[in-house]
Amino acid sequence: MRPVDNVLRELDELRRRDPDVHGGRLFGLVYPSGRDDIEELIRAVYERYLFSNALNPLRFAAQAGIERDVITMTGDLVHRRATEHHGGAVTSGGTESILMSILVNRERARAKGVARPQILAPNSAHPAYAKAAHYFDMDYVSIPLDDSYRADVAQARRLITEKTCVVVASAYSYPHGILDPVQELAALAKEHGAGCHVDACIGGFVLPFMEMLGRDVPAWDFRVDGVTEISVDVHKYGYVPKGVSVILHRDYDWLWNQTFFYDQWGSGLYATPAIAGARAAAPIVAAWAVMQHLGLDGYKEIVGELLVTVARVREGLGAIGGIDIVGEPIGPLLALKSDTVDLYAVADVMDEKGWHLNRNTDPYGLHLMLSPAHRDVVDDLLHDFSYAVSHHGQSKGRPARYA
Ligand SMILES: Cc1ncc(COP(=O)(O)O)c(C=O)c1O
To answer: Which residue has the CA at smallest separation from atom 6 of ligand 1?
Structure first.
């Protein structure tokens, strides 16, 4: 047996080798709010729910009610019409939400006699859709992007077939932070009897508040005719620890096609709404608690401040010269490219200075996913970036790796 302090000492040493999740030097992967009240609340929730299990809603009825509230509150954000049915499920993350949506869309197509349905997704869609095709024996067809890095609707129209079960649109995309033409893609999907999944895994807790703040946000949620599913990650810009996303269906009935029922064993009915069996309850309850604490006004305030941070970063990058923002990103995610500067070489210098910028392959460049906590490091970031632009050598050829 090892004494507790000895085990913890080793863990602390190991943790020091990894990036500090609060340091503001990471972009994506973590979404620090920079707010002590939020983090204290989450710690208090975790203490209370550390050992709970979200598997059996009958045994933990109150906890299951909390989970339903998370679905309803998230559904309200994206204008899912109010019904007594929640029409959605909490999953462990964006990938699981996407998998569940694609499974449902596959079942819809199979019900119509399509044996091997097809996913039609923009080239910038998250790899979870390709993963879904791989897991669920489906075909994956990629929609090229237009000059603005949005899904090219004319190409989508060319590629859609009677086998297409779902058209994907990102609100907004991971590689470039760009909102796809959701209305056109949803209309195209509807015209061909397909579903339309809007991936708001990153944008789901940003775009609604931008709209409330009076920003120009083209319609992208359930108010758009033809949108059938929306995935929203609470564990990104909802500021809760990993383990919470919500998949929402316009039609409540389709939720049952992602629910697995089984009673041919010795312990009665087993039913789960997504892939996991036993699930940590703490992240789900933390999502509820943070949403209760912040309310719409709290999130709105955070997003307002975040947009100020984004504007400062954009202005600072503009002042450096030679760095372009890819397309017209709608929110706090900026992809950078350059005709004159080798941005991978810049990233090498930034790596040495302790920043963890992500590299993009298309276009060749960098990826900056800004979180509220970056507010406190904007000046340092721009200072080091400017230095890196003027002092970099040859790129070390470090590849772009997301996972
Ligand atoms: C647009 C988008 N969709 C889906 C996902 C997948 O989410 P997760 O990593 O939580 O599975 C991500 C992750 O970054 C994303 O950016």
So the answer is: 94
**Among the atoms of ligand 1, which is closest to the Cα of residue 125?**
1
C-alpha 202 to ligand 1 mean position (Å): 7
Please give the Cα distance from 276 to 260 (Å, whole number). Answer: 10
Strand partners, 139: 118
State the Cα–Cα distance between residues 384 and 359, nearest whole angstrom.
17
The SS3 of residue 233 is strand
- Ligand 1, atom 8, lies closest to the CA of 94
Angle at 180 between CA 175 and CA 185, to 5 degrees: 135
**Domains in the chain: ranges and CATH:** 4-35+295-391 (3.90.1150.10), 40-291 (3.40.640.10)
Ligand 1, atom 5: closest residue by C-alpha: 94
pLDDT per residue, tens digit, the chain (403 aa), is 999 999 999 999 999 999 999 989 999 899 999 999 999 999 999 999 999 999 999 999 999 999 999 999 999 999 998 666 778 999 999 999 999 999 999 999 999 999 999 999 999 999 999 999 999 999 999 999 999 999 999 999 999 999 999 999 999 999 999 999 999 999 999 999 999 999 999 999 999 999 999 999 999 999 999 999 999 999 999 999 999 999 999 998 899 999 999 999 999 999 999 999 999 999 999 999 999 999 999 999 999 999 999 999 999 999 999 999 999 999 999 999 999 999 999 999 999 999 999 999 999 999 999 999 999 999 999 999 999 999 999 999 888 887 7
Q: List, chain by chain if needed, residues with CB within 6 Å of any ligand 1 atom.
A: 93-95, 126, 128, 170, 174, 199, 201-202, 233, 245
How many other β-carbons are positioned within 10 Å of the β-carbon of residue 162?
Answer: 14
Q: Give the H/E segment covering residue 296.
A: helix 282-320
Residue nearest to atom 4 of ligand 1 (CA): 94
